[in-house]
Amino acid sequence: MQSQLNHLEHYPEWRAHKLAAWSRLKTEPAIVIQNPSLLTEGEHLQLTKQVAENNMAIYRFNQTEPVDRTIIQRFCEQIGMHKLDQNLCADEDSISTLQVMPMGRTKGYIPYSDQRLNWHTDGYYNPPGHEIRSFLLHCAQAAAEGGSNRLLNHELLYISLYDEDPELCHALMATDSMTIPANIENGVELRPVQSGPVFFNNPNDGSLNMRYTARSRSIQWKACSRVAAAVKQINAQLEQSEAVLDYRLKPGEGLICNNILHSRSAFTNGSIPQQQRLLYRVRSHNRLFSEE
Ligand SMILES: [Fe+2]
């Protein structure tokens, strides 16, 4: 399977290009978007280029009035998110409203609380054929304190494992490397047990995707010494790597990405409405600016 990855024929060049692009990204400001309903050619190009190099981009809508959901939808269409995911907690327009929700269906889900959210890629529990390949997080309101994201292009993690031992990457491409137990709520199975690879590629363009969660409960790793060694190294990298980008989205800013690794720190909402953290999230089954 690994030979299908399009970068391996030119690994040293690909590696150097990716590392350089990521270190540039860390010093670059958010890409300013004047009218999110109608991107200019230049804005579209900036976003495309940033995503092609780093699997992510941070943007800022240059408007003072609050962004409504229709604008988010129009923006998503223009960045090629066209196979939108309708998950359990999304509204009818496929947009999830992430805020502290003490009641209702989302009660008990960490994304809808003010707690820390550990490293993961979105939809790591989805079955094959329903993988999440991209998502958008748009910040409408920030908390009084905390709520920053830590971000890492999974290609960089792949590079660090590959440099250590290419067999670690091979092991994580096995289709039974990571198993998520079924999700059962009140005796009803909402999602069956799900096995899959950690790294997998898109068959047509060979681009690399990742499925991962750092949670230690409700996950079963394949009983294999290479998988164990790889997971240990991933966890160490996510905790210590200088490559990790720490970014706190401000109101009007957002992240778009090809489902890279991310986490969220705990946060504290303030006493006024403008200090209640409120993010919109959209997920898609295709990569940004891509048909697949
Ligand atoms: Fe997430």
Characterise the protein shown here.
There is one protein chain. This protein is an alpha+beta fold and 292 residues long. The chain has a single domain (2-284), classed as Clavaminate synthase-like (Double-stranded beta-helix, 4-Layer Sandwich), CATH 3.60.130. It is built from 6 helices and 19 strands. The strands form 6 sheets. The chain has a 6-stranded mixed beta sheet. It has a 4-stranded antiparallel beta sheet with strand order 4-17-7-15. Strands 11-8-14 form a 3-stranded antiparallel beta sheet, with no helix packed on it. Strand 12 and strand 13 form a beta hairpin. It is globular and about 50 Å long. The model has no long low-confidence stretch (mean pLDDT 91). Fe (ii) ion binds next to loops. Fe (ii) ion (FE2) binds at residues 120, 122, 262.
Give the class-level CATH name.
Answer: Alpha Beta
What's the story with the biggest beta sheet?
A: 6 strands, mixed
Q: Roughly how much helix do the residues carry, as a percent range? A: 25-40%
pLDDT averaged over residues: 91
Contiguous low-pLDDT stretches (5 residues minimum) are none
Give the bound compounds.
fe (ii) ion
- As for the CATH topology, it is Double-stranded beta-helix
CATH superfamily: Clavaminate synthase-like
**Taking strands numbered 1, 2, ... along the chain, how are they ordered across the largest sheet?**
1-2-16-5-19-3
Provide a count of the helices: 6
Taking the alpha carbons of the first and last residues, their distance comes to 18 Å
The CATH architecture can be named as: 4-Layer Sandwich
Q: What's the number of extended β-strand segments?
A: 19
H/E series: HEHEHEEEEEHHEEEEEEEHEEEEE
Beta-strand fraction estimate: 25-35%
